[in-house]
Each structure stands twice: as structure tokens, then as C-alpha cells.
Specification:
CATH architecture of the largest domain: Distorted Sandwich
Number of domains: 2
Helix content: 10-25%
Strand content: 35-45%
Number of strands: 22
Largest sheet: 10 strands, antiparallel
Number of helices: 5
CATH topology of the largest domain: Beta-galactosidase, Chain A, domain 5
């Protein structure tokens, strides 16, 4: 039957993977608007047909938390009847880390318990790989990417039951400045052939878009997740007009999540010529410059806050906290945004987020041969050292090694390389 299609097997997992700890909020991206719609009852069909007992348990918890998203309640009598004899399973055993290859989405969670921390990292092409494969196979015909954003190599952070590193909503002015990513000479990501930002609905560019943003690696072991994205092709050169800029040869972002300890984000940006790179992060209420000379800042949310440390290799041009352009259906959301701007051709950034509010968390670094980033993270009762070597090719993963006391993390460029879904 139609329920045998992979979509119906994967849809329950995809929806659950987009949920925050506690199963009450959504890790937003594109024009999701922060919800899961109102006919989620249909997800039971796929979970029951494929006997996905963990997904079934998760959907039942989700229905208790978000009943308005399951308004077709009378259909449950039919759709859940085949599950009456299935054994119960605990949702708490559901995977904490997940990866959606079609969209380049990664989620990390401390646990599924309410109040636990989590984060999302995103690096994928407008429309995802499946839609672009259809386009590429049909002479690059028009596809609808109107609900996708220029958010490659962006992240959001969830803690204390709220988003502390924020994103936009259903934006009517889509631009990279709405997200936690970077700007080049003040402008963000664009598609060749449509060199504009701030449109209400994004449109496809010319040719193959699948190389605009690629997730290069995915690595997990108990308590640790490492992933990485390459998004330099999302920043083509602008050669005319007042907003000229060079293109990027590299924009590599490494995302390192260590449960109960910290989130570490490492960036390598290399421009075709000297450029100003603005590193962005935004919060609901404010971003405080605690000690900008030492790279110390604080995200202030509605009910909580999180300190972070930001180190940069290139000369600092400016450190500003401004009103974010992030909007929801045309209304500015009121976020405050840090724009940490450096200038040069090569830019390295290391950012340490104190997601678990350790009293003495700090980071130091040095740049070794061939721009190897050597990061030491010290906290109460632990000292970790990370070595991140520059990648050997456009979509080749970086070599990342973490020395964490008795635990060693090794991300091998060959062993842990992700192969993007075929595009032709």
C-alpha cells in the first residue's frame, strides 16, 4: 500500500526529531512558524504500519502536549486500532542525536526530559536534495523553494525551556541576517542568478544548487556529537553596485556538542580577497558585552541567560549589538543581535557556549601550522583539548580530535565523511 513508501515510515521520526526536550516546542527553520500543523494524527499511520514502537510512544506524548495539533481526534479510532496489540515502549530511549540528510539538519539533546538542553545545526541547499534531484533531472525546471531561508551553517540553542540563541519566524524578508550565521561585507547568502536578499519568498537560482551548502561529517559517541557544514558557495561574489564583495573559498563550521559540559563552534572563513566577516548570534532580549576585549558575552532570553566566549584570529573591525532584522510575518521579533566583525582574507573563530551554566567555564586557543586550531576548554573538574585541522578539499571533512580525559574523540576525514544524496 501507499504506507509502504519511505515517506510514511520516516515522517513520524522527522517530526519527533524536530521537537525540543519536553516535546512542547519545535526547532524552527524555514517558514515552519514554530508549530507542527493541526493534522498530526496521520503520523500514527506510518508509525503503526512500520511497527515503530518508539515513534508511536513519542506521538502519544506529543498529542498530550499539543492537542490542537491532533484535532482529527475521531480518526484515531480508525488509525490507532491496529496498534491495540502492540507492546508499549518508553520514549525516553528515543535517540537524543539525529541527522536528516535531505535537509542537512542535525539535532542534539541532553535528554528528552523537560528542562534539558538542546540545539539544532543546519547546512543544506534550498529545497533539500530530493527536490533538487528532481529539478536537475528535468533540465533545471522551476521548483518551489519559497519557504526556505538563507540559513546555511546556522544554529539555534534551547535551554531552560526556551530558545536562548534565536532565529526568525515565518519571514517576509528572508535574509541571512535573520539567523546565527555570517555576513560578508554586510550581506548574506544568495543564489547565482538571483543576487538579492530580503525577498518575501525565495526563488531558485541558475543551475545546480546542491553545492551551495553541504553537511560534510556526522559523528557521535555517548555524550558527544560532532558535525560540520561547508557553505562558501552560498556567498557568491557581488561585482556590481554599492554592495560589492568577494566570494568565499571556504566557510566551514564545526559544531561540537558535549553533553552536560558545553557547545563549541569552530569557523574557518576564507574570502577570495580581503573582506569584512560579521559573525552573528541573537537572543530574544539582549546580548550583553561582558568583556568584549576578552571575547566574553551573554545571551539574555525571556527567562534565562547563557554566557559565551568568542575568539577571532583576524583583526577586529567592530563589535556591535543591534536590533535584529528577524521577523515573523512582517513584524520585527525584537531580537538583539551581536555582530562581531573582523577584516582580512582568512578568518578563524572559536565560540564556547556555557549552556549548562558552569561557574568557571573558559576557553583558550592557539593557531598551529597550516591554521590548525588548538582549543582548550577548562571547567570545574575537567580540561578538554580539541585539535581541528583545515580540510583537504572543498567538501572533505576537517580532522577533529578531542582529548577529554580518559575519553578520546577522533573524527576521521575518510571514515566519517558524509556522502550527499545523489543529485542526478
Amino acid at each position: 500500500t501507499y504506507l509502504e513508501q519511505p515517506f510514511f515510515k520516516n515522517a513520524p521520526h522527522f517530526i519527533l526529531s524536530c521537537m525540543t526536550p519536553g516535546l512542547k516546542r519545535v526547532f524552527r527553520f524555514g517558514d515552519s512558524g514554530g508549530g507542527i500543523g493541526n493534522y498530526a494524527n496521520a503520523l500514527y499511520l506510518g508509525a503503526i504500519r512500520h511497527r515503530d514502537l518508539q515513534a508511536l510512544a513519542g506521538l502519544r506524548l506529543l498529542e498530550k502536549n499539543l492537542p490542537k495539533s491532533f484535532w482529527l481526534g475521531w480518526m484515531d479510532i480508525l488509525w490507532q486500532y491496529p496498534a491495540v496489540d502492540l507492546p508499549e515502549q518508553k520514549f525516553s530511549d528515543y535517540p537524543k542525536y539525529d541527522y536528516c540528510p535531505d535537509l542537512g539538519l542535525v539535532h542534539a539533546r541532553e535528554s528528552w526530559q523537560e528542562g534539558a538542553a538542546g540545539a539544532m545545526f543546519k547546512c543544506g541547499p534550498l529545497g533539500g536534495y530530493t527536490l533538487n534531484r528532481y529539478r536537475n533531472q528535468n533540465n533545471f525546471k522551476y521548483i518551489n523553494v519559497a519557504h526556505d531561508d538563507f540559513d546555511a551553517n546556522s544554529f539555534i540553542i534551547f535551554m531552560d525551556n526556551e530558545f536562548i540563541a534565536e532565529t526568525d519566524g515565518y519571514s517576509y524578508q528572508t535574509r541571512s541576517a535573520n539567523h546565527n550565521t555570517i555576513l560578508v561585507n554586510g550581506t548574506g547568502q544568495m543564489v547565482p542568478g538571483r543576487m538579492r536578499e530580503g525577498m518575501k519568498f525565495n526563488q531558485p537560482g541558475r543551475g545546480d544548487m546542491t553545492k551551495m551548502a553541504v553537511l560534510t561529517t556526522w559523528f557521535t559517541q555517548p555524550g558527544v556529537l560532532v558535525t560540520e557544514g561547508e557553505a562558501s558557495a552560498s556567498y557568491p561574489a557581488i561585482t556590481k553596485g554599492a554592495k560589492r564583495r568577494p566570494g568565499l573559498n571556504m566557510f566551514r563550521r564545526s559544531f561540537i556538542w558535549v553533553d552536560g559540559k558545553y557547545l563549541l563552534i569552530l569557523d574557518r572563513v576564507e574570502a577570495e580577497a580581503e573582506a569584512k566577516i560579521s559573525w552573528l548570534v541573537q537572543a530574544a532580549k539582549d546580548v550583553i558585552k561582558v568583556n568584549p576585549d576578552q571575547g566574553l558575552f551573554r545571551l539574555v532570553g525571556r527567562q534565562t541567560q547563557a554566557d559565551f566566549q568568542l575568539l577571532a584570529s583576524a583583526p577586529v573591525d567592530s563589535i556591535e549589538v543591534v536590533k535584529s532584522t528577524a521577523d515573523h510575518r512582517g513584524k520585527n521579533m525584537g531580537h538583539r543581535q551581536l555582530q562581531f566583525t573582523t577584516h582580512g582574507r582568512k578568518h578563524l573563530f572559536a565560540t564556547l557556549f556555557n549552556v549548562w551554566k558552569h561557574p568557571s567555564l573558559k576557553m583558550s586557543w592557539k593557531i598551529g601550522d597550516d591554521d590548525e586550531m588548538i582549543i582548550t576548554v577548562d571547567g570545574q573538574g575537567f580540561s578538554h583539548t580539541w585539535h581541528c585541522r583545515a580540510p583537504a578539499g572543498k567538501f572533505v571533512p576537517s580532522s577533529i580530535v578531542g582529548e577529554m580525559g580518559n575519553l578520546k574523540v577522533e573524527v576521521d576525514p575518510q571514515k566519517h565523511k558524509l556522502t550527499p544524496p545523489p543529485t542526478h
